[in-house]
């Protein structure tokens, strides 16, 4: 049974990952780090990636002596990418006197939970929440190792302007906060460049609505379709569109950086463009960690390495500040630079990481690689 499976069993939500050994409850000297990821709902695949990285980072940290000499223990909770559930999870951590948290994955969940953490002096660092609002509020204990949606919107607009200036472009969203923010940021940046989209539209995801949307886009002569939905929904939309004879240039976001996208879209996924963070699995700083994952038969794809980096940053700050006091760890994260799997990085006054931001990828044969120049 895998460690991830054990985390879901009653009485074993707290895991001791010292040299791969598990214990149901932490010892008095252990450092308990809360982990909030979706283990149910639409974003399970991303949650699994993040959790896989966190577990590996905890195991590796404990093999080197833990956090300032104390064993790292994980309290893993499912927030289902739901704001209310995330708030409940955050309150659970506060009641349990957990003062260090890696999470959440979805931006709406992170924003809701971050208010609880900030009010109670809990340090939260997310591996995947991209909403600018999360850190723009300047909450001193809130951090992220991933990029921001406004940066993603700027890159998306730049790519659309460079590659598809004379094409009919549709910007789509499905009424969720994440897709609405991404579509708005892309539209704003595209319009500033002097390019107007042909269609800016919202739809309700379902097989029937996807088919109707595909027909509408086809009738409007749309040649490029931008959509920031999750892997399952975009995969379905791309596949259904292809089945109906509509094959525009699809353009997705970091939400589809999982093999689930190509599994759902099938062959129609080939050629789909996507903005995603710099892939650290291809960088020298992550080489040893990637090698370890692959030796275990795991491909550290998507947000896996970012999950690793999030916990790695907490441990590095705790080692530097000689303890697990959240105030000192937060101050250290803001003030120092750390050698992580992302390279040598720091965190600015808002809590945003100083690592390189988004790049453009293209899907082919079930995987994504850098798209390169035009």
UniProtKB/TrEMBL annotation:
Keywords: Amino-acid transport, Signal, Transport. It comes from Methylobacterium trifolii. The keyword Protein biosynthesis does not apply. Residues 1-29 form the signal peptide. Residues 31-366 form the Leucine-binding protein domain. Gene3D superfamilies: 3.40.50.2300. SUPFAM superfamilies: Periplasmic binding protein-like I (SSF53822). The keyword ATP-binding does not apply. CDD domains: PBP1_ABC_LIVBP-like. Belongs to the leucine-binding protein family. This is Leu/Ile/Val/Thr-binding protein. Pfam families: Peripla_BP_6 (PF13458).
